[in-house]
Write a structure and sequence with these properties.
This protein is mainly α and about 60 residues long. It has a domain of about 35 residues: Arc Repressor Mutant, subunit A, CATH 1.10.10. It contains 3 helices and no strands.
């Protein structure tokens, strides 16, 4: 199985992405959906959210 390609791999986060992350998290979207919408890995998204105290709900 091939690894998924992330357009923003190892690129710094910009304010537009941070705002989109905050909006999606506030609307209750899960980590996987947010990461996909941003073109980022789940790990990168989770790390950025944690550093910036953005709570992402855990989806089952």
């Amino acid at each position: 199985m091939a690894k998924e390609f992330f357009e923003r791999h190892k690129q710094p986060w910009n304010s537009e992405e941070a705002g989109k992350l905050r909006n999606l998290a506030a609307k209750g979207h899960g980590l996987q959906a947010i990461a996909k919408a941003l073109g980022r890995s789940e790990e990168s998204t989770k790390d950025f959210a944690k550093k910036n105290k953005i709570e992402i709900l855990k989806k089952r």
